[in-house]
Amino acid sequence: MKLVTIIGARPQIIKAAALSRAIRNHYADQIQEVIVHTGQHYDDNMSQVFFDELQIPRPDYNLHVGSASHGVQTARMTEGIEALLIKEQPDFIVLYGDTNSTLAGAVAAAKIHVPIVHIEAGLRSFNKSMPEEINRIVCDHCSTLLFTPTKAGLENLKREGFSIDEGGVSTGSTTAVPTIDNPKVYHCGDIMYDNSLHFADIAEEKTDIIQRLGLTGKPFILSTIHRDSNTDQPERLSAIFKALIQLSKECQVVLPLHPRTAKLLKTNLDEDLQKQIFSSPNIKLIPPVSFLEMIALERHAQLVMTDSGGVQKEAYFFKKPGIILRPETEWVEIVETGNAILADADEGRIMQAWQHFKNNPPTIFPEIFGDGHAAEFMLEQMLLTNTRK
Prior knowledge:
- The chain has 17 helices and 14 strands.
- By secondary structure, it is of the alpha/beta class.
- The chain has two domains: 2-190 and 370-388, Rossmann fold (3-Layer(aba) Sandwich), CATH 3.40.50.2000; 208-359, 3-Layer(aba) Sandwich (Rossmann fold).
- Helix 5 (131-140) links the parallel strand 5 and strand 6 (145-148).
- The termini are close together.
């Protein structure tokens, strides 16, 4: 069986590590994987380091699309992916999550009838002003095999017309081969949980970031900010950083700076706020970190404050409370269990969430993201489907 895996953004590279590792360890004689990097993230700190660190096979192709508007970037990717699918003739194209790379892969594959496997299917923020929401909906409705990490994802797909049986899987009939018109849905657990379990101890051995930042034995808040809905709006970005300044009076704050955030700090924040941020001894602004460094920071943090969907979830994996800098989340379970709070870009709500978790640190984190073997399950289902074909 031949798979073409599309990656482009940093989280996709990390997720692909789990699938590539499972192929290497369990299916090397049955599955050939062709990796296509769209070049959506092209900064070495945001991309290349992950291939080196996570032992992901080098991409067979790189489209080098770089940064552009949504339309231009997606169009370039679609053109490049279509050409490669025609050349490679895979049994499936594997798409992750909800980026422009995901959308381009879905459109290119669906148009030329290459079956789509969507990993992280069914996630919804119910906010279509987010480009990611459009991308994930389109991909789901173009897919043949949909692997959802959560029960909420399963219910979302059911509401949208996918047929879901009591066992959490679906197909139009029990004997028919799944197709784009007769897709199959699986509730399988989260592939990032596979990675977190695998790399947690490796991170402790291979990175010294805690020692290097002088954080050994010290409580600290880990924060990440990258969504354009926060970085590109001065009022929202200012509210978040005002809260970070308040928090830094009580606790160290560590903020790995996404390139977009680093660029916009100096244009979207007033001079006085910038001065407070850059002069604060308790706010550590650092360059983007590797995946292993991020895991180490998450494991040692007292609390995680982020607008990243992946980081919200990883905080939960490592039993850390989370403050979500968005009005909604696709990972509703972590909020419903009381282990994360939606604070949006609101200084008052952020501080209230901090006080809540400081006074009532959560202790129960139900196992809602699977058993750490999602990648193997997905590959088994692909093989079964391909055999029937």
